[in-house]
Every structure is written in C-alpha cells, then in structure tokens.
Design goal:
about 750 residues; binds alpha-D-glucopyranose; alpha/beta
C-alpha cells in the first residue's frame, strides 16, 4: 500500500483501535491447546476484555489452516480490517530443524547458515508465519545459563557474522517489501540477557559501557545494519534498569546510535514485570515507562490495554502511541498484508516442509557443526564387514535430539535417529545396541505429553540391568560407540545449572566400559558446554554433536565413517570446572599474568586448586587431515589491510578446513583482549593440495570504544595469528590510522 494511503488508514483509527494494535497475545486465544507457552500462563487481567479480533498480533500458532481461518475471522469481525500479524519462535528451523545455533555457528560456513535460514523462512512463509523470533544474539560466556544453546556463542566476530547471514536468509536482500518465501527477523534479547549474575536465569546483568560497546552490543548492531525488522527486549536488568523500560538502551542506543527504526516487541510479560523488578510502582506506571522506552508491542500482558486509554489523553503519550502504531502498520505493509492478508497461505505449495533439498542442507549443516574434540585412533570407523560396533546409550534410538527451542514447530517424529544413520552405513548384524542408562528419570514432568513421549522414547528401565546389558554388548564388539550428555529439557529457557558434570550413572558406565580396554568413541549430546574433566581421558575419540536436529543421525554417521570430514570449531569454551566460570577466549591479561611475574610464583593471576586453562578452548576442533600454514604477508593499503597466507593439506584425504585469524592484544586506552577472533575462512582442500588464501581486513576491525562510547583507532604495530587447528603462526604489521 502506498504510504499516503497507509497514513489515511492510520488517521481513521480511533485511540481504541490504536491501543489494540499494540497488544500481542499467544495463539491459544484462538485455537485449542497445543500452543507452547514460554512463560507463566495465567489470567492476563484485562480490565475491559478487548475484541480479540482487533489486536495487533498473535504468536506461536504454526498450523497454516488455523492461521487462514483466524485471519479470515479477523477481517470479518474487526472494525478496522487491519490484518493480524503472525509471529513465532522459529529459532533454528520451522519443521526442518537444523542444528541448534551454538552448533551451527561453529561450522563457520556462513553461506550454509544463510541457506538454512532461507529454508526456515520459506517453510515459515508457506505456513503463514510473518515474523520469526530469531536470531537470538545474546553473547554467552557462562554455560550455567541454559539458553546458551540458542546463541551463536561467546565470540563477537562469530556472532556478528551469524547475525548478518541469518537476517539476510530470513528477509532477503534489503528491500522496501519482504518478498515471498521470506519473513521478518525479530532479533533478541536486547540487551545482554546472556550475562546473568551466577548464570541464573533472568538474573541481573552488570556490564561496563566499554564491555557493552566493544562486545555485548555488537551482534545486535550487526543485525540492525543488516536491516532486521524487529527487536525483542530482554527480561533482565541492565546496570540497574530493566531492558524493557530502558530509555537509554532502546532509544539512545538502539534507535539513535544504531539507527534502528523497526518494531520493538517486549519479551513475554516483560512490560508487567517492570513492577516485579521494582522499577514501576504499578501496571499503569509500567505501561508508561515501557511506552516511553519505545516498546511498540506489549507481549502477553494487559498493561497497555488497561493503561493506555488514560495515558493517551495526554498529548505527549498520544504521540508516543501514534509512533508505536505507525511502526506496526509500516511492518504489516512491508509484509504486503494489506494486499495479501493470507500471505503464504494461498500458494500451490502452501504447507510444504521437509523437502529433499531442505534435508540435504540440514545433513550438511550437521556434518559441519559437530566438533571433533578428541581423536586418537578410532575415527573414522572402519567399514569392513567384520567390524562389530557396540552402540551404547539412550541417544541411539532417541527422537528427542532437536533441542528445547524446536518444540514450538518441530516434531520429534521427523528425526532420523542415530540408529537409522548407522543402518545406512553398517549391517544390522554389525551393530549391538543397549540403552546404557535412562536419560529421563521419569516422564511425569511431561504431563499430558507423557504417553506420546514414552511411546517415542521407550520405557524407563532398571539401571543395573541397562549397565550389565551394555557391558555384555561391549564385550562382543571391536569398538564402542557411547552416547552421553544432557536430555533436551536440561537446556533452553528456565534451565540454569550449577553442576555441569555428567550424572554419576553416566560416569560409572564410562569407567566400566573403559575396563574392557576397547576404543570408546563418545558422542556428546548437549545444549551447553559441560565439565568433562573426569571422563575425557577414557575416550579414544569424542565428537560433540550438540542437538543436531532432524538429520542428526545421517550427518553424524557420515562423519563417523569419513564420508564427511569434521571441520567445526568450538563456539564456547568448555571449562575444567564450574569454578573457572566465566572463562572465555577473549579475556584480557592482568598486571600479573601467570608465568609473567619473575619475582613470585604465588602472587600471579591463578587458582591454587585448578589451572587457568579450559578443558577445551574456544576454537578447538580436530580434523581427519593435517594442515600447515604460513603467512605470505600482511600489508596496509588504501582499502584495508591485505592479508595472505598459504595452507597445505598434508594428508591423503580431502578435508574441509576452517582457518581462524586472531588479533593479539596491543596497547590501548581501554585494555584489549589477549586475543580476539577477527576473521575466518572455510573451504575444501583436496589431498596434498596447497592453497594461497587472500583476504582484506577493514581498518574498522581494529577500532574500539571507551566507556563514553568514544571510538579509538590508533596507528601502531598489530599482530595477527593464523590458527590452524591449534598450530599458530604470527605476523606483525604496521597500521597507520586513516591511510
Ligand atoms: C520467551 C523467550 C523469548 C520468546 C518469547 C515468546 O520467554 O524469552 O525468547 O521468543 O518468550 O515465546
């Protein structure tokens, strides 16, 4: 619709109509149960129940036939005839569920990540969704927090690249209108929700401004530069002010400094929760502060509905309300909803999901997201007919490998299990299965889903029986494939943990199996880094599969037999103990770095009961091939810093490889990290192939900010480190600012 016409429509709206447009509720208002509530489900407390056909948006209805009917009812029953906006928690796939984001990002195959986002967008579009609540871009450095699984991880560069590519995949290239097969991206959670005190869910966040400007805000800013259409506020306090009521954060930073002019939606009930925070004195005050902070949609509370009719009698608030509603109408117009309210719902292939192409991309992304943390001799597995493999552990036949945030639209029944993947590679007689241990203590917590869950996941069995059966199977095998880790409910929202070690029964099983002196290949299913210090040495090989999505079984087995080559790198540090947390790669030095103080062994930065080193570092990841790399040169030119290195595959097999380039620390007004990732590449090398790689770094990459947000870029010597699977080469060059 032409903007002029949209303005005319806007001016025809009553205050009542405008307030209704700012209300977003989940879909269970319009459909029977089955809509996933992601917060306390309670009576919302509308003083005057609105005509629900007149509200602005609903979310988490993912059935295209139901959405068609809802939109039809809205257009028939609303006075203003403004189409309803359909949003949903599509975080890493609609029905083709890809590996969780913490895994995907580790592929460093940003083209493939974008392709997966395009598939998620197309499936969402063909099922009537207009807006997806992702990518989540909260930087995470504390694995006690359960939501690390939906983040691209601890690193700024990785998260920025992930942000740009996922937004581009969802929305298509920058355009005034969102084309078919594309959806609007709602990035979240603004801001810094991933750094709660104690790693405890919803806890306060305290970060200096320089930490915000140099690290935590960067991924969101990258998404805004990629033209994301929406931002979702965060639950947490940021330096004493709740994000949802934070004018400095949402107006001065997000809208003024970053230039965001899209829609700001609160997180679930976050407007009302300004009262629980102790920031607003009551619901009216909460609505006032949220509107002043620029929040356009009030998700899942009645605060705006109850308070704005009175507030809007004041001219200043009437203008703030107009601002919010205008942005909402602009978004609906960009989606073409006024001309096509049944967007995506009237295509010949409406409802299409899980195409062969989608499953192929998902398989590739599994292959590129699994991190080979350790490999002595066991991988790749031999495929000789006499090879007998004991497949121990509950994940062999489990369908619950999608991860927490897939539950909104994904289906566990879609999963190609590890067993199915193994049967594509080996004969049935070569595989000896035992569940090893129960992954769920009982199914009672699944409530109404209990029966279906038990049917898909199998009954709870006696632990001692499972242990003995596992040992019997293992005795008959040449190699043991052991699945360990978390169940999918142990991570995601509301799942903070203080103990990151494996359960005792898993540790006992590992040690018992190790007594058989056969190679053990561990497959680690988890939504977060775990503390594996006690068990790591028992494994010959350890493949981190995270929660790999619908094609997990096939992708993992392609890696196990060497049909695919592991190239992923860790996106988040694995501590040796919880006591080291927060522990991450881009940490600063100290005035007394370990090994740096010649005068004393005591008075240096260390623990007396643990090393400073993690068990597995950010960037860790092995290959089936060996590489060497040497710098050919780094030189500043007018358009940036030209970098060149040569890399050689020294093995007899082709392999994907993910070189990483780190910037080492340099003197600065605000101390910079000892090392921070500044570039990566990802490509295939044939056996014995040598390749010269060139890339250009922009001067901008070397800048940083102080606590006032002032940007610094200084001339001087900088050192780049080429990291090839832990083999490091440094190259120093001189940068003259502004040349
Ligand atoms: C949740 C989450 C947010 C999600 C929203 C809607 O509590 O914090 O990520 O998009 O509510 O389900």
């Amino acid at each position: 619709m032409e903007e002029q016409k949209l303005r005319e429509l806007f001016h025809r709206l009553s205050v009542h109509d405008k307030i209704a447009q700012t209300i977003q509720l989940n879909g269970d208002l319009f459909v029977e149960s089955g809509v996933m509530n992601t917060g306390p489900a309670k009576d919302l407390g509308f003083q005057k129940e609105p005509n629900f056909y007149e509200i602005g948006s609903i979310y988490n209805v993912n059935d295209h036939q139901k959405l068609y009917q809802i939109q039809k009812d809205v257009l028939e029953n609303s006075s203003h005839k403004i189409p309803l906006l359909f949003m949903s928690d599509i975080v890493y796939g609609f029905r083709t569920i890809f590996p969780m984001p913490l895994a995907q990002a580790g592929s460093y195959d940003f083209d493939l990540i974008q392709q997966a986002a395009e598939i998620s967008a197309k499936e969402s579009y063909l099922n009537g969704i207009h807006v997806v609540f992702s990518p989540m871009l909260d930087l995470v450095r504390d694995p006690r927090w359960g939501r690390v699984m939906e983040s691209p991880g601890e690193d700024v560069y990785t998260s920025k690249e992930f942000a740009k590519r996922v937004v581009a995949g969802y929305q298509g290239e920058k355009a005034d209108y969102l084309q078919e097969n594309h959806v609007a991206a709602c990035i979240k959670h603004f801001a810094a929700y991933g750094a709660p005190e104690g790693g405890r869910e919803y806890q306060q966040v305290e970060l200096s401004n320089q930490k915000l400007f140099n690290e935590y805000l960067q991924p969101y800013e990258a998404a805004v530069e990629a033209n994301c259409e929406l931002v979702m506020t965060a639950f947490n306090l940021l330096n004493g002010v709740p994000s949802t009521g934070n004018k400095w954060l949402n107006r001065d930073i997000l809208r003024e400094r970053f230039g965001f002019n899209g829609v700001l939606v609160s997180d679930y009930a976050a407007v009302q929760e300004l009262v629980s925070h102790g920031f607003a004195k009551d619901e009216q005050d909460a609505a006032k502060k949220a509107l002043e902070a620029g929040v356009d949609f009030d998700m899942m509370t009645a605060a705006y509905a109850n308070a704005l009719p009175e507030l809007a009698k004041d001219q200043a608030f009437a203008e703030l309300l107009d601002e919010a509603v205008w942005r909402i109408l602009i978004l609906k117009n960009k989606l073409g909803l006024f001309e096509q309210p049944f967007r995506g719902l009237t295509e010949p292939n409406t409802g299409e999901v899980l195409t062969d192409e989608a499953k192929e991309v998902a398989t590739k992304l599994v292959e590129k997201s699994c991190v080979l943390l350790k490999n002595e001799t066991a991988l790749p597995l031999k495929k000789t007919k006499d090879q007998r493999i004991a497949v121990i552990g509950p994940y062999a036949e489990s369908h619950f490998t999608l991860g927490f945030w897939a539950s909104v639209s994904g289906r566990s029944s879609d999963v190609l299990t590890l067993k199915a993947g193994l049967l594509e590679q080996f004969g049935q007689d070569q595989l000896l299965f035992s569940r090893g241990f129960n992954l769920y203590e009982d199914y009672s917590s699944f409530g109404p889903l209990k029966a279906g869950f038990e049917q898909l996941n199998g009954p709870i069995e006696d632990e001692e029986f499972l242990l003995e059966q596992s040992l019997e199977q293992a005795k008959k095998a040449d190699v043991i494939l052991l699945t360990i880790g978390e169940n999918f409910l142990e991570s995601g929202e509301g799942a903070s943990k203080t103990n990151l070690r494996l359960p005792e029964k898993q540790i006992r099983l590992i040690k018992k199996l190790a007594e058989l002196k056969k190679p053990i290949v561990g497959l680690l299913y988890t939504g977060r880094p775990l503390v594996l210090t006690e068990v790591e040495s028992y494994f010959d090989s350890l493949l981190l599969v995270w929660f790999p999505g619908v094609m997990g079984g096939r992708g993992i087995c392609n890696l196990l037999v060497g049909e695919a080559s592991p190239s992923a790198r860790l996106t988040m540090t694995f501590p040796r103990s919880e006591g080291q947390i927060p522990i991450y790669s881009a940490q600063t030095s100290t005035g007394r770095p370990l090994g740096g103080n010649a005068h004393s062994e005591r008075f240096v930065s260390k623990y007396i009961d643990e090393t400073n080193e993690p068990l597995f570092s950010f960037g860790a990841g092995k290959s089936y091939a060996d590489f060497e790399g040497t710098w050919q040169g780094v030189e500043e030119k007018a358009d940036g810093i030209h970098c060149c290195y040569e890399i050689a595959n020294q093995s007899e097999r082709e392999a994907w490889v993910t070189p990483q380039i780190y910037l080492l620390n340099h003197p600065a007004e605000i101390v910079r990290p000892m090392k921070r990732l500044i570039a990566t590449q990802h490509f295939l090398l044939a056996a014995k192939e040598r390749k010269v790689v060139t890339f250009t770094l922009l001067e901008e990459e070397f800048a940083y900010f102080d606590n006032e947000g002032v940007r610094y870029l200084t001339s001087g010597n900088y050192t780049l480190q080429l990291d090839l699977l832990g083999i490091k080469n440094n190259q120093t060059f001189h940068l003259v600012k502004g040349e």
